[in-house]
Amino acid sequence: MAVQKPSIPKGTRDFSPLEVNRRQYIINTIKKQFVLFGFSPIETPSFENLSTLTGKYGEEGDRLIFKILNSGDYLAKVDEQLLTERNSQKVISQISEKALRYDLTVPFARYVVQHQNEITFPFKRYQIQPVWRADRPQKGRFREFYQCDADVVGSDSLLQEVDFVQLYDTVFTELKAPVEIHINNRKILSGLAEVADISAQLIDFTVALDKLDKIGEEAVKEEMRGKGISEQAIEILSPLFNMNGDYKTQFAQLKEILATSETGLKGIEELEFVFENTENIGLQSAELVLNLTLARGLDYYTGAIFEVKAKIGEFSSSIGGGGRYDDLTGIFGLKDISGVGISFGLDRTYLVLEENNLFPALEDTTNIQALFINFGQKEASEAMKLVKQLRQQGINTEVYPDDTKMKKQMGYADKKGIKKVILLGEKEIQEQKATVKDMITGEQTEVAFTDLVNAL
Question: Domain Aminoacyl-transfer RNA synthetases class-II family profile: where (predicted)?
């Protein structure tokens, strides 16, 4: 039998101890701020009913949902005619009832409806779990990745949007990664579609517009034409591509374009509130940027939309995003519950910190502070007693498991980045003193067993 070469699916990764330590550093930084800002943790299953997820992310999003085949002989009950026709959409509904979650927001909406009688509104939750998308893997885009979400449901106050801007600013300031927080409002986009008389094509318009950064103005216009948006409408929307100046200047221009749209003017009013209050409170290192071409492709956003981009390094993809959704829970039967939420992209944030050498000294691939050298069974047994005492005092310690050459044990400590090595031979046991070697300076000191905790 041929030996199988080990591999993992495209778009997934293994993480070394160093990488996991760095990921935990980011997660712990985000989690600390989530708690400070008043969010409580929840978790939801890795997979949901397929019906829970489909129809919530738009046509493009639905295609990227990983479906799970029914257990057993999943083809047995499929209509033969459908198999002959090769109609994958109709076949899927018969062979798959579950799917891996695509994001954390829709499962959260399901959670809120299912547990509405146990929840105190406004409900502020955070959730840090993996999600899966059948996307084309590329730098910063994976098929399995973590999202770190915070949402508030049960309040339509715009103070929540202001607070989320502060939350982004606080987290990225602590990570020492200055960012731009791009913001727009779906009501403005709806208003623009209204004045251009393309309301029926709002989704086509926003999906194309959302690609402006990636493919440029001409390609976006070409995509709009391809979706049947008229030249006249594109002409009306053209000023959108070239607006500049501070937010007050852009709002003034926008008010002229949207003069006949009540919805559009309402969107401007909401954004003005966020900008003015953010200006009043101040930001530490982030910059709030009005981006009128920001659309975010997800269908459920109805108000403010956010996207976060790093101001340093060459990584240009968004490292966070979110927005206001006025009736996401309505699809599960709980009407008129407004919510707003943001997400931190853990993997992309990692790439930014790595590219710009912003990780603190987490180079250790171990969390062991001290290693006892193994001189034999008797000495190792005595060392284990001390190890127990040290661990009880919160010091991460271990005994090298094998009675082997000193050079090999020292090499292990060196490669693992262990700072202190403890020598406990027959003489040391007799005198109740250990020899502690500093692996950085090479200095050796004798320390009484009773003083080991202080010495380490």
Answer: 1-401
Contact between 187 and 206 (Cβ < 8 Å)? no
Inter-axis angle of helices 247-257 and 186-195, nearest 10: 40
> How far apart are alpha carbons 414 and 426 in whole angstroms?
24
Tell me which amino acid residue 178 is: P
| pLDDT tens profile 377-425 | 999 999 999 999 999 999 999 999 999 999 999 999 998 889 999 999 9
- Is the link from the previous residue into 45 a cis peptide, with omega within 30 of 0? no
Task: State pLDDT tens for residues 126-136.
Answer: 999 999 999 88
CB distance 207 to 347 below 8 Å? no
More confident of the two residues 163 and 194? 163
The encoded tokens of residue 5 equal: 């070469």
Q: Residue 77, class by beta-carbon neighbours within 10 Å (0-12 exposed, 13-18 middle, 19+ buried)?
A: exposed
d(CA 54, CA 101): 10
